[in-house]
Amino acid sequence: MILLFVGLWELVVIVIVALLLFDSATLLNVARLLGKTYHYLQKSIAEIRSQISLTNLDDKDTENDDNPSSKHAG
Question: pTM of the entire structure?
Answer without folding.
Answer: 0.54
